Structures are given as C-alpha cells and as structure tokens.
Amino acid sequence: MHTLFHKVWNAHAVRTLASGQTQLFVGLHLVHEVTSPQAFDMVRQHGWRVPYPERTFATVDHIVPTSSQKRPFIDLTAEQMTSALEGNCREFGITLYAPGGDGGDNQGIVHVIGPELGLTQPGMTIACGDSHTSTHGALGAIAFGIGTSQVRDVLASQCLALDPLKVRRIEVTGRLRPGVFAKDVILTIIRRLGVNGGVGFAYEYAGPTIEGMTIDERMTICNMSIEGGARAGYVNPDDTTFAFLEGRRFAPQGAAFGRAVEWWRQIASDAGATYDDVVTIDASAIEPTVTWGINPGQSVGIHESIAANADPEALAFMGFSGGAPVEGTRIDVAFIGSCTNGRLSDLEEAAKVVRGRRVASHVQALVVPGSQAVRRAAEARGLDEIFTKAGFEWRGAGCSMCLAMNPDKLEGQQVCASSSNRNFKGRQGSPTGRTLLMSPAMVAAAAVAGEVVDVREMLEEVPA
Amino acid sequence: MAAITAVAGRGLPLRGADLDTDRIMPARFLRAVTFEGLEHHLFEDDRAADPAHPFSDPRYRGATVLVVNRNFGCGSSREHAPQGLARYGIKAIVGESFSEIFLGNSSVLGMPCLTASPESIDALQSLLEREPQIVIDVRVDTGVVTAGDLHVQAQMPPGMRDAFLTDQWNPTAMLLDRYEQVRAVATSLPYISGFQE
Ligand code: SF4
C-alpha cells in the first residue's frame, strides 16, 4: 500500500549517500536559458561528460522577447543567452527548441512544452532549474525545481541528491460553480494551508473534483504547489492522463503505448496507501479568487473583504486597507499567460469573456501564449482575432510579464491583473508594481471593465 | 572543498518574513550567463526604497553571518539569490525557517542555513542592532550559536549537517561515484527503453 510518490522514488533510488540523502535517477531533465549557462560551464571546467544527453531537452522562455521572435533578437542579452544555450546544447548533444533553430516551432515555456510534446509521462522523475517544475506532476510524474548547482549535477550524472518528502493528500470534493476555475482552487488551497504549509511535503491532489479535471486544469493546480511551499505536487495518472498522452510526439506509440498504460496504472497510489497528512477542500464553496497582497496565500473571494487585521506591510505596498474589498480596484495592465495559465484552454476561457467586448481604454492588455503550439492552435480557432479586436496585444510564446526579464514590465505603481503565479514585490518588473493574481477569465473581465470584477456577471450578460 | 564545522564573523540582522528570491536578487540581474557581480545587486529594490536597509548600513559591512526571520528565500529555484549572498561574503545564515529549495541551493554552495526559535532569532537580531561589531560564532556540529553572552540552540537537517562536517556538501563527486549502479537503475525503468518488450 504505497503512494505514487514512494513508488516513483523507490524505482529511481540509486543508493543512500554518505550524507544520508538519496541518490535519485532523473528520467527527464528540462533546461532553459536562464539557469543553465553556469551549470554547463561547471561541467566543462571539470571535464565531465553528459551521460544521458537524450534525456535532456532545452528551450528558451524566460528572457526571449515576445513582441518579435525573429533572430537575432532585438534584445542583445536575450540573443547572447540564447546563443550560449545553442552552443551548450550543440556541444553536449542536447535537443533544443529555440526560435530560428531546428524544431524552433516547438519553443515555449518549459512547463508547457514538456507535456505538450509528450515528454512528461507518469511515473517519471523530472527536474528543471525552475521552481514551477511541479507542473509536470499533473501527469503523475514527480517533478522537482532545482538550482543551478543541481542542474550541473543532473547534466553530469543524471542524478540528484535529495531527501525524501512526506506526502499530504489534498482531497477536493464538490462541483466547481460556473466561472470558478482550477486557479481559484489552488489559490484557495494555498490560502488555507499557507505559503509554507507544504514545506517538507509533496502534495497529492485527489478526490472527485480533481479526477474530473482536464490535464490543463491539473497542471494549473500542480504548477502552484511550490507557492504553497510544497516541493512537488501530483495527480495520480488515470484515463484522462492516458488519453492526453496518446499520439503525442514523445509518448510511446502502438503496442508500447499499451504496455506503458499498464505500468502507469500500477505506479498510481494504492487505494489503501497511507499518507502523512490528509486535508479536505470543498470546491463547491469556492468563489472566483483574487490575491490582494504580496504572496499567493493572501487572497479573498471576489465578494469578500480583506481581513481587518491583515498583514500591514502587504496592505501598505498594495495600497489596500484592512476591511476593504478588492472588487472594484482599478487596473492598469492585464496579463494572460504563464506556465500556470497560458495554455489553449486558458485562452479559450478568456476569449469567451472578451468576445464582442473592448478592453477599457486605460488598460494595456496582453495575451502571451505558453508555447508556439498553443499560439498556432489558438490562431486556428480564431482566438487571436477575438483578442486583437478587443484591444489585446497578441504575442509570441514565452514567460513575458510573469517575471519581466524581457521588455514586458510594469511601470511605477501600476496594478496588473495577472493569470501568473507570483505576486511578490517587484515580480513583474517594477519594484513598486502591484500584481493581483486571478484566473485568466477574471483577468479578461478585469481588462474589459478596467477594474476587478466578478467574471460571472459578464458570463451571464450577453454582449450586444 | 573542505569540511565546514563552524563559521565565525560579524553578523547582519535582516528582519522580515517571507523575503523571497526576487527581493534578494531582482530578476533583471539574472540576465547574464555568469554569476559574476551579483553581490552588488542584493536587495537592490528594497535598499532603494529604504536607505536604512541593513545591506546598505556601513556598520554591517564585512559581515559573514546573516540573521533572518521566517520562510527566507521562498519563491524561485534560481540560484542567483544564494550565489549573490555567498559572493557578498555571507558564510552562514541563521533564521526562523527557510524555503527548501533555497536551503538546498545554499548548502551546495557551502553556506549552511540553521534554524532557531523566533525568540532566539529576535534576541540575536536585537543584539546585532545594538552591537554591530559583535562576533557571532555558528557551530555547525553542535548547532550552538554564540554572540557575546547570548547562546542560542539552532538546528539543521542531520543529513545536511553531516555533509558539512564530512566535506560532502557538494554532491557531484558522490553522484558520479559507482556509476554502474546508476546505469542499472536506468535500465530497470521501462520508459528508458520506450516500453519495448
Ligand atoms: S511562466 Fe513564470 S513561473 Fe512559469 S517558468 Fe516562466 S517565469 Fe517561471
């Protein structure tokens, strides 16, 4: 009677190191331009080889411009970092998806393209030099965000030295009400368990509500595990998972797919598995949720007021007062994108709100698809036209304003309704910029209204 | 590399919970292919907003032991934050708690992070605010942190502590040792062969 976490851990454990940590084999290593150059340098300096180059895939996402992705990039630093990664991948025999290169049309945010290409599979251990690697757990993988020294370790040895985690099962029951999304569920979980409530844990998201979710929705949930302090988050693989993977480029094909499904089924948590902790969440009580503060745990339901005794530092930074509502807050920027909510289904939900409406005149609104494939699929459905007609900018794929390492940044104290995952001070490029996290549909509604509103009101009224 | 059993030096008290990696090292300074020079940008935005920020305070210049509060280093897995601190000259951090990724990233840089009770941390910070010149002695082996007459008991995960004491805090060499075991695990995983029979 074991959890998926323990089964995957045990299957990948090489040995116990003298430090007491476990040496864990990494089944899939994903690399991007920001956290890898120093790791490649260290590997080179030591004269190490990369023993499993076919198990590492690279892309560029964090720093690439999204206004134009023509090479050379207008941003010289972005060009320099991308060409450094190209050189490193060539030297070590690693596949890279970058604009202007072979397979460049597979480029995108690393956590979007992994599942999209079928690289992410149940039962794998996955590592990437990025904290939102937990996203890949949506397919039943155990996925860790790692630092650059660990990227070096994985390159050189295909292994990590890690301490095992405890497992907390988060059982979500009840139907989500219309206009309430996976993003609202994970914001509610983090609010309830705290931004460091997950320290030492992997989160297993389970229960009928999660089982009824698409893989995209599960990815939104798993993505933000790290915002709750959990090092990893996952959903047990099921028929939804297998259907998602079937036919994807790197998924097993033909008879091998059948054998894979058998293995994937038995790697899932056993019915009687024991957990270190179990928490239950009633999804039917969740409202569209918005953060008001400077960490993702500081949120309220759209019609709820901020607590009178809320963290004064956060209130002061955000310009809110205790006891006040967030609804009605004027916004300056609306950002739809990121590895949390930059997939096709997210853009579709936002487009439903935007269709036939206009972005408020004082709002800068942008849609940044999570990958070039998402962008192409959205264009095939005419979503780009819905967005641009409404006054949104339609961009190339990348992280963009999620962390503002490219020219997409807030200015001064601008307020941004954002579908991303972090509302830390300065996260969106201006030290005094203010971020309100919410679902993509809520961002779309805020863009149109020019202020934070309940998206359900817009879903009900039919625009002329 | 060498075993790390203790760190002694002047301290730098930095108050505040949930100081995330973007505040330690604003993301715009990550636009580089090396870690060089990061030490100049630590807390740059916080320092601009607060001229009295401890990292701008000349009394703490040259400090090697950072004393912080709850959930220090939360946020990104990017190593730029601990790299910046290490390059600045920080050799150990004592705090109420740390994010796990930050803790791991710091320890592979040879920068032990120890946790102690909120009361102990407050006492250390208050002491450093009163007497910036005082030397803090951080014992990795016993977990005792001493500054003047103040003795505080701090903790560290035992595996991590042993790694510092036995010079195994940088794991790459260990991971490359006995590589046939790694190959055996890889071969046993059905997906490595693409689920071929
Ligand atoms: S979209 Fe944001 S959170 Fe996701 S990988 Fe990019 S920067 Fe990180």
How would you characterize the overall build of this protein?
The complex is a heterodimer of chains A (464) and B (197). With 464 residues, chain A is of the alpha/beta class. Chain A has three domains: 4-162, Aconitase, domain 3, CATH 3.30.499; 166-284, Aconitase, Domain 2; 288-460, Aconitase, domain 3 (2-Layer Sandwich), CATH 3.30.499. In chain A, 33% of the residues lie in helices and 17% in strands. Chain A contains 17 helices and 19 strands. In chain A, a hairpin with a 5-residue loop joins strand 1 (13-16) and strand 2. In chain A, helix 2 (37-46) crosses helix 5. Chain A starts with a helix and ends with a helix. The relative contact order of chain A is 0.13. The mean pLDDT of chain A is 96. Helices cover 32% and strands 16% of the residues of chain B. In chain B, strands 4-3-2-1-5-6-7 form a seven-stranded mixed sheet. Chain B is of the alpha/beta class and 197 residues long. In chain B, helix 4 links the parallel strand 3 (92-95) and strand 4 (113-115). Chain B contains eight helices and seven strands; from the N terminus they run E-H-H-E-H-E-H-E-H-E-E-E-H-H-H. Chain B is globular, with a radius of gyration of 19 Å. Chain B has helices at residues 21-24, 44-49, 80-88, 100-108, 118-130, 158-165, 172-176, 179-188, and strands at residues 6-13, 65-68, 92-95, 113-115, 135-139, 144-147, 150-153. Chains A and B meet through strand 1, helix 2, helix 3, helix 5 and strand 8 of A and helix 2, helix 4, helix 6, helix 7 and helix 8 of B. The structure holds iron/sulfur cluster. Iron/sulfur cluster binds at residues 61-62, 109, 111, 130, 132, 338-339, 399, 402-403, 420-421 of chain A.
